[in-house]
């Protein structure tokens, strides 16, 4: 299934939020997305439909930004709240760091987010992802806007 995630990640809808004036963008490395999924996969039940990690900015200092990750899954489309994934292959802090490392694929002006959500959706054996960010002062999450090459 991880190979399918990588293939789906390579074809995922990542540029939807890009503005017309943005240059062609770099997609995240499928291996980076696969590594995050691999942390979550051991705890997902057989009937999962959606799994996501929400990474929240806790604090900012002159040297670092501190984050916390919440990893959840749902077995139906109606379950927006989700259930905590009981078994992880990595620590939640490691997952938060992996999501934060995806910043290198964002345009510099889009790296100052307060909440990132990486959502995996399963359709049969195929798994796709969607990455959205909340920015300070904005009411609605935005699709990722990758950095130009």
Descriptive notes:
The protein is of the alpha+beta class. It has one domain (2-17, 24-143). It is built from 3 helices and 6 strands, in the order ααβββαβββ. It has helices at residues 2-10, 30-40, 92-101, and strands at 50-60, 65-74, 83-84, 115-123, 126-134, 142-143. The chain has a 6-stranded antiparallel β-sheet with strand order 3-2-1-4-5-6, covered by helices on one side. Strand 5 and strand 6 form a beta hairpin. Helix 1 packs antiparallel against helix 2 (30-40). The longest helix has 11 residues, at 30-40. The chain starts with a helix and ends in a 6-residue tail after the last strand. 28% of the residues are buried.
Average pLDDT, all residues: 81
Main pleated sheet = 6 strands, antiparallel
What quaternary form is this? single chain
Number of helices: 3
- Provide the number of structural domains: 1
Largest sheet strand order: 3-2-1-4-5-6
Rg, nearest Å: 15 Å
N/C terminus separation: 30 Å
The unreliable regions are 6-25
Strand content: 25-35%
Order of helices and strands: HHEEEHEEE
Count of DSSP E strands? 6
- The outline comes out as globular
* Structural class by sheet pairing and helices: alpha+beta
Helix content: 10-25%
């Amino acid at each position: 299934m991880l190979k399918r995630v990588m293939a789906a990640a390579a074809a995922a809808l990542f540029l939807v939020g890009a503005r017309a004036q943005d240059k062609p963008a770099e997609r995240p490395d499928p291996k980076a997305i696969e590594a995050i999924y691999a942390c979550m996969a051991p705890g997902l039940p057989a009937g999962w439909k959606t799994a996501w990690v929400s990474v929240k900015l806790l604090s900012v200092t002159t040297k670092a930004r501190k984050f916390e990750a919440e990893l959840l899954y749902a077995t139906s489309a109606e379950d927006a709240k989700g259930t905590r994934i009981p078994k992880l292959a990595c620590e939640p802090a490691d997952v938060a760091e992996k999501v934060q490392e995806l910043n290198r694929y964002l345009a510099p002006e889009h790296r100052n987010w307060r909440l990132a959500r990486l959502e995996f959706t399963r359709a049969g054996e195929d798994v796709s992802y969607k990455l959205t960010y909340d920015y300070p002062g904005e009411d609605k999450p935005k699709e990722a806007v990758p950095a130009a090459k």
